[in-house]
Amino acid sequence: MYKFKKISINRHCTEHLYMQLYNSIKDLIINKDIKPHEKLPPIRKLADLLDVNNITVVKAYNLLENNNYVYKKIGSGTFVSDIEDNSYLKGFDGLEGEAYEDIRLMDRGQIEVRENVINFASATPTPHLFPVSDFKEVLNEVLDRDKGLAFGYHDSKGYSPLREYIVKYLEFYKINTSIESIQIISGAQQGIDIISKALLKHGDSVIVECPTYTGAIAAFESRGVKMLKAPITRDGIDLNILEDYIERYNPKLIYTMPNFQNPTGYSYSTNTKKGLLELASKKGLIIIEDDYLNDLNFYTDENITLKSMDKNENVIYIKSFSKIFMPGLRLGFLIVPINLNNEILIAKQTSDISTSSLIQRAFDLYLRKGIWKRHITYMKKIYKERFDTMVQSLENNLPEETTFLKPMGGINFWIGLAPGFSANELYSQSINKDIAFIPGGVFYPGNSESNFFRLSIADVYPDDIKKGIEILSEAIIKYYERSNIRPQRKSSYRPIL
Ligand SMILES: Cc1ncc(COP(=O)(O)O)c(C=O)c1O
């Protein structure tokens, strides 16, 4: 307890008491005054020690948990997370049978969904949304026009008319670049992989948002690098933690999704984006910006990319065409700072020589004919209806103790069970009722347990969203009721009338 005695709470300061407490404990964690897996004092004890209300401590602990500084174990208490943990083997203890197998599969980026299951797990668009007939037309045109050439090997950098057109296409997104910087890739996953191959060696450190995209965890893991976890909040990552990591570990790069992050759906504020760029520029840090969903900005205009503000060439930008066009194209591109061009090109060559010539030529025509703009408008309309239905269903049905921050766009929703409850356990119950989602532990390097889980709207129709969220909410209520532990209410005061 003696470490907590040092905490001083200023009652005359305008900052809320729980925020002061949150920041003080956060500092103790970051400075390693309290060690990973060490238990925090029980709520009442700390409240007595600091002469504050129990609710102040509850709020501070909840915020620490939401930002991944601590984790809770049912019946045992609150423990400090190991935010620099470098062990990736996950236990998934306590889960047996099909549910266990499902979650292990998800951890490897796969999912097997039975018929009749309402699938909130998959982030792959419903196939009937794919622009198949438009694509058939451009494919036929390319075959008539280019004949055998469409099936030859290609320059590893990519088909130059496509690279040239991408430079124009990027003007629409206010990104100024040149054809030399465009590297065609076979999907964003390959982008992450070849950047890792080109720039990282065993033992290097990289910073990842926490939680983050499982495919990135796997790519970094395969390089044997140390992942430093930067907790993600509603405004993006905490720049103080970032600076601290840079100073202590000299990381090679940071992997980010500044808009509609996967899995949380949160976006960095413009200030955080600017702060990140400034820091990267000052410290010579490479930023990977994974832009997999930027177009789905339903309720914000702040979805500006880091790349469009990158004056000092710190950003490697990755664009995926999977979510907005078709994942099976296996097509995307990088914008690479000129000084890294060669290393990235060599890594691409050794990965798959080049991306399919036929697909590059067809997509080039698809862009040049302007069909992409029409398709994006169509996809935005479909997804917005699903997004609004999801928000409304969550607001109407989720039990009060369950948290959810409405994102401003995208396809992912990050839901928090009451502290101490397990999303893995909820999964094993809800899959029996034909509802699938992804338990949060899958998105944390080295962690298998979380009270959070991800719901995606990519592969569900509005009617199924309504029905699915009702069933899921019912399962959550039952889970709370069955447990001996009362979920802590959301810390807000209510009238007793
Ligand atoms: C954040 C993020 N990056 C990259 C990818 C992989 O995209 P692609 O299909 O272009 O390889 C995904 C796929 O879900 C993703 O969510």
Automatic annotation (TrEMBL):
Residues 15-83 form the HTH gntR-type domain. This is Transcriptional regulator, GntR family. The keyword Flavoprotein does not apply. Belongs to the class-I pyridoxal-phosphate-dependent aminotransferase family. In the C-terminal section; belongs to the class-I pyridoxal-phosphate-dependent aminotransferase family. It holds the Pfam family GntR. GO terms for molecular function: DNA binding; DNA-binding transcription factor activity; pyridoxal phosphate binding; transaminase activity. Its cofactor is pyridoxal 5'-phosphate. The lineage of its organism: Bacteria, Bacillati, Bacillota, Clostridia, Peptostreptococcales. Homodimer. The keyword Disulfide bond does not apply. Keywords: Aminotransferase, DNA-binding, Pyridoxal phosphate, Transcription, Transcription regulation, Transferase. CDD domains: AAT_like, WHTH_GntR.
